[in-house]
Amino acid sequence: MAEVLVYVDHVDGAVRKPTLELLTLARRIGEPVAVALGPGAADTAAALAEHGAVKVLTHDAAQYADYLVVPKVDALQAAYEAVSPAAVLVPSSAEGKEIAARLAVRIGSGIITDAVDLEAGDEGPVATQSAFAASFTTKSRISKGTPVITVKPNSAAVEAAPAAGAVEALAVSFSAKATGTKVTGRTPRESTGRPELTEAAIVVSGGRGVNGAENFSIIEALADSLGAAVGASRAAVDAGWYPHTNQVGQTGKSVSPQLYIASGISGAIQHRAGMQTSKTIVAVNKDAEAPIFDLVDYGVVGDLFEVVPQLTEEINTRKG
Amino acid sequence: MSLRIVVTVKYVPDATGDRHFADDLTVDRDDVDGLLSELDEYAVEQALQIADEADDAEITVLTVGPEDAKDALRKALSMGADKAIHVEDDDLHGTDIIGTSLVLAKAIEKAGYDLVISGMASTDGTAGVVPALLAERLGVPQVTLLSEVSVEGGPNGTVKGRRDGDTASEQLEASLPAVVSVTDQSGEARYPSFKGIMAAKKKPVQSWDLEDLEIETDEVGLEGSWTKVDSATERPARTAGTIVKDEGEGGKQLAAFLAERKFV
């Protein structure tokens, strides 16, 4: 059976959920061979084997932390040359997409980004993508070279499928360009204890109607009652009420959770572009004419300062 | 020596219009107005600020696209860029990302550059990989997704910036020449002034075709594409949801809905 390279996104050996989802999709088109780089790379093996990796190629070097992107491209290319895979799959993070794109040029291949589904086809893997603020669904494939495809979080369920997961050291020689962009400082993002926005099963977002940074505590309380991530519309971010890393929309992050709750968000096209593929959509807004209500499975026309705290209290009571 | 900045911009269909695909599954550009991709305005703005700080700088805006794409160049010129290059060729119709990066890279090399600045993504395709592809093709450092950017030391100087990622905020540094991309957090883009709009009409817009760039027609266009779109289907409209007016019990009603769907 053909081998499929899966690039592993991990933090000090802890594999992030989108990579486990990717292994599920990889199994549809071949045998997953995982590539884990940087500190803790070998520690990823158990989780990767549990989810179907027949082999785990690992390599650690200071270059991965000290320089931007290119060392990882060099390593993925080394893995590509060692394995000659039928396809290369990479999680659709900002960095993942850059790594995949540069690899595609190097190996003379096409690239598909932000796939939301993947299946085997007669002429190679077929990727489903969302286009134009998720108003269209396209199916595409790579027509030149080895398919390089990046896949968005929440595109597949994580499924256990134990495999050998044999760890092998990957031999990497860095290119002259690897050290071109120095990382001269790094400030880790403080953990909120909440799930990461793009990976979360539930997202609770606030917009212009939240009317102030201090009021986001109402949104956070609802998120915490549901074990959800917190999102914000561009208006709320531009007003300085919530960090840009939490922005949902065309210029922020695109999310596709099981449940999306929009509070005080009117639903401009730019916001819809980032959340329209959510499975269940709920909105609270005092303007009955707000476009967000065209998308909802359930909407409450009302004052979020009344509705949201009552909702949170009721959820906490039911969990009681 | 003058700091040569090339800003790549894209002419995109207006997101508030009714965007759809043409019969050949490329983006239908006839039925929707086009404009300069909003995210590229941030790139033009940062170019203008970097040029202001430099002793001597020249900003060239570059686009690949149909005849109408000149509108995007005019907008950038009216914001304050010095000159423009329009790569236009009938054989470019249907060119994908890999092909577009090839055309842009060849045009950037022909134009001459010390610094390339791009937006973080286009607002139509939204892939966000063109800046990395340009760095790969040009063989220069990528300093991408910056929310802050500065250049010191002119054409042989250094570019520095801050990249805010999911898990960390990173300070980056590279020697010129380099490719930079900026996010919508890099600083609000200026509106063109009346004077700027008038001045833009007199600024040079150069047109290049594939022959000028020594690119074979089979390397680009729909036929030369590295990817093939097999189908594009409109997402069915969502079935109308339940909408209630809050009469004091809205939160509780919503909780009941969430419980019914097993979210609670």
UniProtKB/TrEMBL annotation, chain A:
Keyword list, A-Z: Electron transport, FAD, Flavoprotein, Transport
Transmembrane segments annotated in the record for this chain: none
Entries under InterPro entries matching the protein: DHS-like_NAD/FAD-binding_dom, ETF_a/b_N, ETF_a/FixB, ETF_asu_C, ETF_asu_C_CS, Rossmann-like_a/b/a_fold
Residues in Electron transfer flavoprotein alpha/beta-subunit N-terminal domain copies: 4-183
SMART domains tied to this protein: ETF
Essential cofactor(s): FAD
Biological role: The electron transfer flavoprotein serves as a specific electron acceptor for other dehydrogenases. It transfers the electrons to the main respiratory chain via ETF-ubiquinone oxidoreductase (ETF dehydrogenase).
Subunit organization: Heterodimer of an alpha and a beta subunit.
Similarity annotation: Belongs to the ETF alpha-subunit/FixB family.
Protein name as annotated: Electron transfer flavoprotein alpha subunit
Native organism: Streptomyces umbrinus
Lineage of source species: Bacteria, Bacillati, Actinomycetota, Actinomycetes, Kitasatosporales
TrEMBL record, chain B:
Organism per entry: Streptomyces umbrinus
Function: The electron transfer flavoprotein serves as a specific electron acceptor for other dehydrogenases. It transfers the electrons to the main respiratory chain via ETF-ubiquinone oxidoreductase (ETF dehydrogenase).
Subunit annotation: Heterodimer of an alpha and a beta subunit.
Keyword Cytoplasm among record annotations: no
Named cofactor requirement(s): FAD
Superkingdom of the organism of origin: Bacteria
Family recorded in the similarity comment: Belongs to the ETF beta-subunit/FixA family.
Pfam family, one: ETF
InterPro entries listed in its UniProt record: ETF_a/b_N, ETF_b, ETF_beta_N, Rossmann-like_a/b/a_fold
Keywords: Electron transport, Transport
Listed name of the protein: Electron transfer flavoprotein subunit beta
Domain Electron transfer flavoprotein alpha/beta-subunit N-terminal as annotated: residue spans: 24-217
SMART domains: ETF
